[in-house]
Hints:
globular; seven-stranded mixed sheet
Amino acid sequence: MPPDALQTAERLAAGFARTAAERDQQGGTPKAERDQLRDSGLLALSIPAAYGGLGASWRTTLDVVRVLAAADSSLAHVFGFHHLMLATVRLFGAPAQWESWFERTARQQWFWGNALNPLDARTVSRSRGAWHEFSGQKSFCSGALDSQMLIASAHDAQTRAFLIAAVPTQRSGISIADDWNNIGQRQTDSGTVTFEKVRVEDHELLTDPGPLSTPFACLRPLVAQLVLTNVYLGIAEAAFNDARHYTLHEARPWPGAQVASTGDDPYILGQYGEFWVGLEAARVLADRAADRLDAAWSRDAALTHAERGQAALATAAAKVSAARTGLDLCTRMFDVAGARATHGALRLDRHWRNLRTHTLHDPLAYKIREIGEWALKRTYPTPGFYS
């Protein structure tokens, strides 16, 4: 593990936390904070040292996502998705493509943004001989604003084949709308990208081996799901810490409790015990899943369907646990903090808003069904962009 990565993340997180509530209210692009991430060197965290990166494992990279999420889940989201985009070119592309992109990202502090969204089929690709023309729109394009590179997708106009490309954000014909105004994750810039006759060169298409074409390429959705899992867990930890501070320093005991301080109320203590059990279980599952991902990643092209399946099951269990624990904690934190904790200036509701927005990314019910298929029938999840 890079010796300074976690310390650097903790230092950045301390600063991000001081302005997180105010920036949540503002929305928009956190340009200054994104530049701090650039200057920190952490955008090269998952890039191998041979290409100028820090050579961190996925376990370390996801730990950093969690640390940042406990301070500001929007910044953790775009940071995690940046590394997901780097994983995308590594898994779907050829060495001649990703080696150069890795080197330039590490050297020039590139931020990568997302315009892939496989569920949004409005972008069409038309062959123009030695290049393709992308036209259409993509929604939920997290981190596209203020990025240098985009992972974009389109359906071939004739064959309907799903194409993915890596293109410069400033390419002629690409426009990014500042139209993200949701209740949570308000500084992720997860709005709309429009492609108007955008020229995509053949060498920018990720076709060798291509999307989800091998067990190794099918690790991409696991990276995505574990980024989400660690964002959830970071939010839950932030909610716990905020609730704990308020209970110990601000909350007043209920008269019927007959105790001198809220921290001595047996019902309050019981709820904190439940919170802690949930957090500990979610942490263990998230760490185990990250280790499974690292083990699968190290197998490279030799990875088997079964090995990928085991990593997918660990990822699904971790995500379900983190989401359930987090939503419960972000709701019940007010039971232990009291009515004064609902003061608008505190914006403690942002933890629930952020987590609720993020957990709608893909339904937990389908993750649980996949786990059930394995538990009952010993059937591995079918690889897809969400499993």
